[in-house]
Amino acid sequence: MIKYVKCIPKYMVEKIRKTDLKKYEAQDGHVRFYAYLAVWSKELVKVTVAVKNYKKKWYCKQVAVHGIDSDKCVVRDMEYNSYLATGYSIGWHDMGIQPRKKWFEDSNWYTAADKAYDPWAYIVNGEFVTKMPEFRYSAYDLYQGCDVLQYLRLYRQYPQIELLIKLGFARIAQSKMILKLTAKDKKFCKWLIRNKEKILDSRCYIDVIIRAYRTGRDIANLQAYRQAKLALRTDSHKDEIKELFKGKDLERFFDYIAKQKTNMNSYCDYIKACKHLGLDLTQEKNLLPHDFKRWHDIRTDEYATQKALEDEEKRKELYEKFAEIARKYTPLEHAKKSAFVCIIAKSPTDLIREGDVLHHCVGRMNYDQRFVREESLIFFIRNRKEPDTPLVTVEYSVKERKVLQCYGDHDSKPSDDILRYVNKIWLPYAKKTIKNIA
Question: HEC states along the chain?
Answer without folding.
Answer: CHHHCCCCCHHHHHHHHHHHHHHHCCCECCCEEEEEEEEECCEEEEEEEEEEEECCEEEEEEEEEEECCCCEEEECCEEECCCCCCCEEECCHHHCCCCCCCCCCCCCCEEEECCCCCCCCEECCHHHHHHCHHHCCCCHHHCCCCCHHHHHHHHHHCCCHHHHHHCCCCCCCCCHHHHHHHHHCHHHHHHHHHCHHHHHHHCCCHHHHHHHHHHCCCHHHHHHHHHHHHHHHCCCCCHHHHHHCCCCHHHHHHHHHHHCCCCHHHHHHHHHHHHHHCCCCCCHHHHCCCCHHHHHHHHHHHHHHHHHHHCCCCHHHHHHHHHHHHHHCHHHCECCCCCEEEEECCCHHHHHHHHHHHCCCCCCCCHHHHHHCCCEEEEEEEECCECCCCCEEEEEECCCCEEEEEECHHHCCCCHHHHHHHHHHHHHHHHHHHHHHC
